[in-house]
Amino acid sequence: MIRVENLHMHFGGIRAVNGASLEIAKGSITGLIGPNGAGKTTLFNVVAGHYRPTSGHVYLDGEEITGLPPHELFGKGLLRTFQIAHEFSTLTVRENLMTVPAGQAGERIWDAWFRRGAVAAQERDVRRKADEVIDFLEIGHVADELAGNLSGGQKKLLELGRTMMVDAKIVFLDEVGAGVNRTLLNTIGDAILRLNRERGYTFCMIEHDMDFIGRLCDPVIVMAEGTVLAEGTAEEVKANEQVIEAYLGTGLKNKPAVRA
Question: Keyword set for this entry (predicted)?
Answer without folding.
Answer: ATP-binding, Nucleotide-binding, Transport
